[in-house]
Amino acid sequence: MHKRFVLACLLPLLAACGQNAEAPSVATPDVPAPQPISVRFATYNSSLYDEADGGLIARLEQGDDAARKIAAVIQLQRPDVLLINEFDYDPEQRAAELFQRKYLEVRHSGLAPIRYDYRYSAAVNTGEPSGLDLDNDGQTGSPNDAWAFGKHPGQYGLLVLSRFPIDAAAVRSFQKFLWKDLPDARRPMNPDGSPYHSDAVWQQLRLSSKSHWDVPIETALGKVHFLVSHPTPPVFDGPERRNLARNADEIALWTHYLSEPDAAWLCDDQGRCGGLSSDARFVLAGDLNADRLDGDGDHVAIAALLDAPRVDSSFVPRSEGAIDVAQAYGFTRQGDVATHTGDFGSHTGTLRIDYVLPSRGFTILGGGVFWPRKEGAGYDWTRASDHHMVWLDLTTQDAIDVVR
Q: Which of 10, 62, 338, 400 has the fewest CB atoms within 10 Å, measured from its CB?
């Protein structure tokens, strides 16, 4: 939480000793204007996953250089509420505890440690066996046959860290929401027009490639619903483009969630139905694997979310480092490369795919993408992941009025 308090001191004028005496000149120091309480929300795809079940735990116990770099970025930017994508989930949350204790609470490069007293994590679909042949190769049990691609349950998981209390009992998850139940679902089709999946398989397919969570957090600005997810990349498939369709519909689920509070079809894993209440404040965050103007994703789906009536997408975080890298690759881009958040090498280039999107009603004080130039402080830390932290500093009109 970022608070600035200004103490104003009254300096009395000295009384004149005689009738014509002049009061002495008193220098008035420059006093900064008081600032409202604000909360920093961030998303960061950390790439802290491992090919082996339990592999991340072992690495964190032994000491992991990539985890140190990720922790250094977090210590420098100090978000109050943070979504970490691609952080392997384990039911006992040993990896999350190790990362907090051995990395976030340990000083890196002279930076102050940081502690998050509250966190939320839960099961995801990546690596979770489906028992079905989902890639039509005649076999079951491969990573492609999991409910979402993964080599073990929990791979590429989600982790929410917060300095503020999380209402865990009120969390809504949509891990098991069926793809077919989304209105106008984009069922993957073969080039000849036939369905890619059999009807029996299609009736069971889950939509979310990890999970979609609505995490209520009691912040200094009041209750905020932290809406987090990590849709599948829209690539790594075939001519049926099943991952493209899934990515688009995972994004569309949020668009429905924000616009249909009474939707009877929109039921979570807890059995509660309907979208987000129309008067609720939210921040939607995550690696959405979709750029509005560039890349292989469905531009219509991400545009619909960014343009949703309840979403304030007016402030677009930027960095100088993204400009340098994009120019070095030389790809033609329709969008502003300064807003890009992911670096996928010389074959793909840079894209804007990581988002922090507040609801209307907040005041956005600022934000950014942690992507320094090569000569900048912390550049080496960014090599730990192909994504970069995105953050926004938010306040409310009520908080502004308090300091006026």
A: 10
Give the closest residue to 67 by CA, choosing from 42, 95, 94. 95
| Element at 222 (helix H, strand E) | strand 222-229
- Expressed as residue numbers, the domain containing 246 is 41-402
Domain-located, residue 32: no
d(CA 201, CA 179): 11
Which tokens belong to 324? 């340098």
Q: Residue 261: give its domain's CATH number.
A: 3.60.10.10
What is the DSSP annotation of 84-95? EEEE---TT-HH
Please provide the average confidence, as pLDDT, over all residues in the chain: 94
C-alpha 317/C-alpha 295 separation (Å) is 19
- Domain membership of residue 172 (yes or no) is yes
Nearest to 284 by CA among 22, 65, 41, 107: 41
pLDDT in tens, 129-155: 999 999 999 999 999 999 999 999 999
Q: Is 299 exposed, middle or buried (0-12, 13-18, 19+ CB in 10 A)?
A: middle
b/e code 209-237 from CB counts within 10 Å (16+ = b): bbbbbbbbbebbbeebbbbbbbbbbbeeb
Q: What is the mean pLDDT of residues 98-117?
A: 98
Question: pLDDT, tens digit, for every residue of 164-194?
Answer: 999 999 999 999 999 999 999 999 999 999 9
Taking alpha carbons only, the member of 134, 144, 132, 56 closest to residue 92 is 56
* Percent of the chain scoring above 70 in pLDDT: 93
Report the predicted TM-score, pTM, of the whole model to 2 decimal places. 0.92
CB count in 10 Å sphere of residue 52: 13
- In a domain, residue 300? The reply is yes
Q: What is the reported pLDDT for 27?
A: 55
Does residue 353 belong to any structural domain of this protein?
Answer: yes
In the predicted model, what is the mean pLDDT of residues 82-106?
99
pLDDT tens digits, 244-278: 999 999 999 999 999 999 999 999 999 999 999 99
**Other CB atoms closer than 10 Å to residue 204's CB: what's the count?**
15
Confidence at residue 33, expressed as pLDDT on a 0 to 100 scale: 76
For residue 84, give every residue at least 6 positions away whose Cβ sits within 8 Å of its Cβ, in sequence order, or none.
Answer: 44, 45, 46, 48, 158, 159, 160, 161
CA distance 113 to 104: 6
**Structural domain tally of the chain?**
1
DSSP state of 155: T
